[in-house]
Design a protein that fits this description.
The chain has 724 residues and is mainly alpha-helical. The chain contains 22 helices and seven strands. The protein folds into three domains: 146 residues, no CATH class; 187 residues, no CATH class; 210 residues, no CATH class.
Length: 724
C-alpha cells in the first residue's frame, strides 16, 4: 500500500461510502457507484488548479491548461479507485483458482509468526513524508532514468519503474535511518515496542462479532472452492464437518459434501443414517469443545449448511428432520461423480432462545461393534466395508435400471417424515391374474415399478405436465400448435391405459450430444443443456430429424420433403413413438434450439415442418383409434413383404386392416382425379429462406405425391416463397 494522501476529512468521507462499495463489489457492478462517488467528491473537495488560472473561467483556458486540469482530475479518480480497492477489499478472495496455495502460504506465515515492522519501515512511516530523503528519491528517479545512446528516455514498464524506485528508496531510507537524530531513534524504538504489544494483545482476543459473522458468511463458498481444488490436486472426494459458536453465541454444525454417484446422490443422501450416526455425535463433540460439557442434543436442534438452490440440479432429497435441502447441482461435464454444492449457514431450527437442550439421545440403529460404512459407488476411492444394518437401501444406490441407461426414467425420492422407529413393512403387490406369459425379469420390473409408484404417489403423466410447462415457455407462430398436437398424441396414449407410451425408442444415430447429456443429468425440465456452438447444434438436430423420417420423406436437404398425406402402401409408424422416450425428446431438442436462436428463419421453417408432421400423426391416430405398428427393418428397407407369423395371427390381420383403411380412402380419392400430364421428375431444394418445388413424380411415389394444397399451406405458414 502506498503512502497516505488523504486528509482526515477526506478519509471520513471515503469511509462513509464503504457500505455502498461493498454492495457494488458483491454485484460486480461499479458503474453507478463510481459516477456518484466522483460527483460527490469533487463537490466536497474541488480539485486545486494552477495559480495562473485561478481567476480565469474554465472555458477561457488554453488547450494546454485544460489538458493539465483534465489530467489532474483523471489522476484523482485513479487515486480514489485505488483507495477503495486497498481499504475495502474482502479479506478472502475465494473465487481465485489458486486459493489453496494462498491458504498454505498463510498457514506457513502463521506458523512462523507474524513479522514485526522493521526499524527502517517505522522510521519511514513517521519521517519520510515531506523530508529531504523523499526529495532525494524523486530526484534520483528522474536523473537515473534509462536513456538510449542519443540521450532520449527509454520507455519503462510499470514493473521496471517500480523495481528501480524500490532500490533507490531502500538505499536512501537506510542511509537516513543511520543518520537519524537521537530523538528520532528513541521515537522509532518506542513505536516498535507498542506495535509488538498491540499485536500480542490482538492474538489473545476472540474475533469481533461483526468479523465472525462476515467470516461465517464466506465459509460455504470457501469450503466449496477449497474442496474442488483439493479434488483437482488429489482426485479424492471429501465430506467436511465443521461447527462452533455463531455470532449470536449459538452452537452450530455444518456438513459439506463433494462427490456424487452417477445418480446425483452425495454421501449424506446415500447414507440413510447420516444424521443419526454422523452428525449427531459430531454436534455433541462440538458442544463439548465450546464448553458445554456432556451436552448431547438430537439432530433437530443442530444447524446444518443449507444448500443454495441451483437450477438444473438433480438427485433425490434426503429424508431428515430439518428443512428440505434442494437437490445438488449438475456435475461439471467430464467429471463423473464429482458434484459439489454451494451451501450457506443456517440458524438452528430447534428453539429460538439460543439455549441448548439436552434430551436423551436416540442410540443409532445397528450393532455398534460393526464397521459402519456407506456403499461406495463407481469412481470413489475407498473400498467398501461389510454393510451394516444401517447401510443405504438399494433405492439410494446406483442401479442398472435407473442410472445405467442414459434414457432411463428418473426416480425421485419422496419427502419422508423423521421418525426414530423403523418404517412399516410394505404389503406385497397384488398378484397379476392375467393368463399372458411373462418372463421373470418382466415380473420383477412390473413389481418394482408398481411399488415405486405406489410409494411415491406419482401420477403417470407427471413428466408430461413438466414437459408442457417447459415447451410452452418457447414462442413461435407454429410452435404453440405443434405443442398442442403433441400433447393430444400423448394424452391419447394415456387414455388407452398406456402411461409409459410405446416401447420403441428413437435411434441415437446423428443425435445431438446435448440429448445424452440431458439424460445423464436426470431429464431436468427447468434447465436446458449448454449449446456452445449453435450452428453445429442446428446441423446435428436437423440431420437427426431427417434420419428419423420414413423413407418416403427423406431428402438430401436439411429438412425432409413436405409430404404430409401418406402415400399408398406407406405409413408413419417409424415416427409414432410416444411416452417419455419418444417424441418428447424431439420436442425438447427443438425447444432448446428455439431458445438459443430465437425466431430465426431456419427454426421457423423447421417448426412448421414439425407441426404438419405432428398433425399427420394426430389425424392417423384419430382415424385408426390405436397406435400404428412400427415397421420392421426389412419393411423400411423394402426387402420383401413377408412378415412371418404375423399374417397368421388375428392381431396382425386386424392391424393391417386398420392401417389399410385410411390408405384405401386416400387411394380411391386419387383414382377419381384426372391423371396429370407427364412432367419431369420433382426436384425439391431447400435453404433457410427459399424452397423450390417442381410438382411431379417424387422418388417413385406416384404423381402429385406432394399435393398442391399441402405445399401452399406449408409455405404460406412458414412465410417462404415457392418457385415453379
Amino acid at each position: 500500500m502506498g503512502r497516505k494522501w488523504t486528509t482526515k476529512d477526506q478519509e471520513e468521507f471515503l469511509t462513509g461510502w464503504g457500505p455502498r462499495y461493498k454492495q457494488a463489489s458483491e454485484k460486480k457492478n461499479y458503474m453507478f457507484f463510481w459516477d456518484d462517488l466522483f460527483s460527490a467528491w469533487f463537490i466536497a473537495f474541488p480539485e486545486a488548479v494552477a495559480a495562473d488560472v485561478v481567476n480565469i473561467a474554465p472555458e477561457l483556458w488554453s488547450p494546454e491548461q485544460q489538458e493539465t486540469a483534465q489530467k489532474g482530475i483523471l489522476q484523482r479518480k485513479a487515486q480514489l479507485r485505488d483507495w477503495f480497492r486497498n481499504h475495502m477489499r474482502p479479506d478472502c478472495r475465494v473465487d481465485s483458482p489458486g486459493y489453496i496455495r494462498k491458504l498454505v502460504k498463510l498457514h506457513e506465515q502463521k506458523n512462523t509468526g507474524k513479522r514485526s515492522r522493521k526499524a527502517t519501515e517505522m522510521y519511514s512511516a513517521r519521517f519520510y513524508q515531506g523530508s529531504d530523503t523523499q526529495k532525494t528519491v524523486q530526484k534520483r528517479l528522474r536523473d537515473e532514468a534509462p536513456r538510449d545512446s542519443a540521450g532520449e528516455l527509454i520507455q519503462e514498464t510499470k514493473a521496471e519503474k517500480s523495481s528501480r524506485r524500490m532500490k533507490i528508496y531502500g538505499a536512501e531510507i537506510m542511509a537516513a535511518w543511520k543518520g537519524a537524530t537521537e530523538e528520532q531513534t528513541s521515537e522509532v524504538l518506542v513505536a516498535l515496542d507498542e506495535s509488538r504489544m498491540r499485536r500480542m494483545s490482538e492474538e489473545d482476543n476472540d474475533p469481533m462479532p461483526d468479523d465472525q459473522q462476515e467470516g461465517l458468511r464466506r465459509l460455504p463458498r470457501l469450503m466449496d472452492v477449497a474442496a474442488k481444488e483439493m479434488h483437482d490436486v488429489s482426485g479424492w472426494y471429501f465430506t467436511i464437518l465443521s461447527g462452533g459458536r455463531g455470532a449470536a453465541g449459538v452452537v452450530q454444525t455444518a456438513s459439506f459434501h463433494l462427490g456424487q454417484t452417477r445418480n446425483g446422490v452425495d454421501f449424506e443422501h446415500a447414507y440413510s443414517d447420516f444424521n443419526e450416526v454422523v452428525m449427531k455425535p459430531w454436534t455433541s463433540f462440538v458442544r463439548n469443545l465450546c464448553g458445554e460439557s456432556g451436552a448431547q442434543v438430537p439432530a433437530s436442534e443442530r444447524s446444518t449448511l443449507e444448500h443454495v438452490p441451483n437450477q438444473g440440479s438433480v438427485g433425490p432429497p434426503s429424508p431428515s428432520s430439518r428443512s428440505p435441502i434442494p437437490r445438488p447441482p449438475i456435475p461439471q461435464e467430464g467429471l463423473v461423480g464429482n458434484g459439489h454444492r454451494t451451501p450457506q449457514m443456517a440458524q438452528p431450527e430447534g428453539g429460538t432462545d439460543g439455549t441448548a437442550r439436552t434430551p436423551t439421545p436416540t442410540p443409532p440403529s445397528g450393532d455398534g461393534s460393526e464397521n459402519v460404512s456407506p456403499r461406495h459407488s463407481e469412481g470413489e476411492v475407498a473400498q467398501a466395508e461389510p454393510q451394516a444394518s444401517n447401510s443405504p437401501p438399494p433405492e439410494n444406490a446406483p442401479s442398472s435400471t435407473s442410472g445405467g441407461r442414459e434414457d432411463g426414467p428418473v426416480r425421485a425420492e419422496p419427502q419422508l417424515p423423521h421418525s426414530s422407529s423403523p418404517p412399516p413393512a410394505r404389503s406385497p403387490p397384488p398378484e397379476n391374474t392375467n393368463d399372458r406369459r411373462r418372463s421373470p425379469s418382466h415380473d420383477a420390473t412390473v413389481e418394482h415399478n408398481t411399488t415405486l409408484r405406489a410409494s411415491q404417489g406419482l401420477r403417470p403423466d407427471s413428466w408430461l405436465q413438466q414437459a408442457l410447462k417447459r415447451l410452452r415457455a418457447t414462442e413461435g407462430p407454429d410452435w404453440r400448435e405443434a405443442v398442442d398436437l403433441w400433447e393430444g398424441i400423448e394424452r391419447n396414449q394415456l387414455e388407452k391405459a398406456q402411461p409409459e407410451g410405446t416401447k420403441q425408442r428413437f435411434s441415437t444415430v446423428n443425435r445431438p450430444p446435448q440429448i445424452a447429456r440431458w439424460f445423464a443429468y436426470g431429464r431436468n425440465f427447468t434447465t436446458d443443456p449448454d449449446i456452445s456452438d449453435i450452428a453445429q447444434y442446428e446441423q446435428e438436430l436437423l440431420t437427426w430429424w431427417a434420419y428419423l423420417q420414413p423413407e418416403w420423406r427423406t431428402s438430401t436437404d436439411p429438412l425432409p420433403l413436405p409430404l404430409y398425406h401418406t402415400p399408398e402402401g406407406q405409413n408413419w409408424s417409424v415416427l409414432k413413438v410416444t411416452g417419455s422416450n419418444g417424441l418428447l425428446i424431439v420436442m425438447m431438442a427443438f425447444a432448446w434450439w428455439g431458445k438459443a436462436v430465437g425466431l430465426s428463419p431456419l427454426w421457423l421453417t423447421a417448426t412448421a415442418d414439425l407441426k404438419h408432421t405432428l398433425k399427420a400423426l394426430a389425424n392417423l391416430c384419430e382415424e385408426t383409434g390405436s397406435v400404428p405398428r412400427r415397421s420392421t427393418i426389412k419393411e423400411r428397407r423394402g426387402a420383401g413383404t413377408n412378415i412371418g407369423k404375423e399374417n397368421s395371427t388375428l392381431a396382425g390381420r386386424r392391424r393391417k386392416q386398420a392401417e389399410a383403411a385410411p390408405l384405401a380412402r386416400v387411394s380411391s380419392k386419387r383414382r377419381k382425379q384426372a391423371d396429370p400430364p407427364t412432367v419431369p421428375p420433382t426436384r425439391v431444394t431447400r435453404s433457410s429462406a427459399v424452397h423450390k418445388v417442381d410438382d411431379g413424380t417424387v422418388d417413385g411415389l406416384g404423381t402429385n405425391a406432394i399435393e398442391e394444397s399441402t405445399i401452399s399451406q406449408y409455405y404460406l405458414t412458414t412465410g417462404l416463397t415457392v418457385e415453379a
